[in-house]
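In this supplementary section we document a worked example of the pipeline. Step one takes a protein sequence of length 121 as its only input; no multiple sequence alignment statistics are reported here. Step two produces a three-dimensional model, which step three serialises into structure tokens for compact storage. The input and output of this example are shown verbatim.
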Amino acid sequence: MGSLGRWGVGLAAGGSHWATLLVNVTGAFAMGVLVAWLARGTAHPLARPFLTVGLLGGWTTYSSFALDAHALGGDGLGGLLGYLVLTLGLGVAAAVAGLLVGDRVWGSDALADEAVAEEEL
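The serialised model returned by step three reads:
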């Protein structure tokens, strides 16, 4: 399902590098939200592998990121560095924002905060 969604975004964006950036940043945000939710310990044991590895693993794409970076490298160093900094910076920021949103939605819990701090970050 995640891969089909990524493919659809790629089609809608005309195969541009922005499609890869979009899916990776939204995937990082979703992962942050999921980590906050899963850390509460109330989810089914198969929810974590299905949602994180299956769904978000199919949605995000390191291979396309690498290919896009390689293609942009042929156009000059400025575009390549901009793409790398944007992808990594926005990805980390989105993951942190997702953690904060998830914590806000499901309420702060000392046990969940400890699990996130120790296991996920």
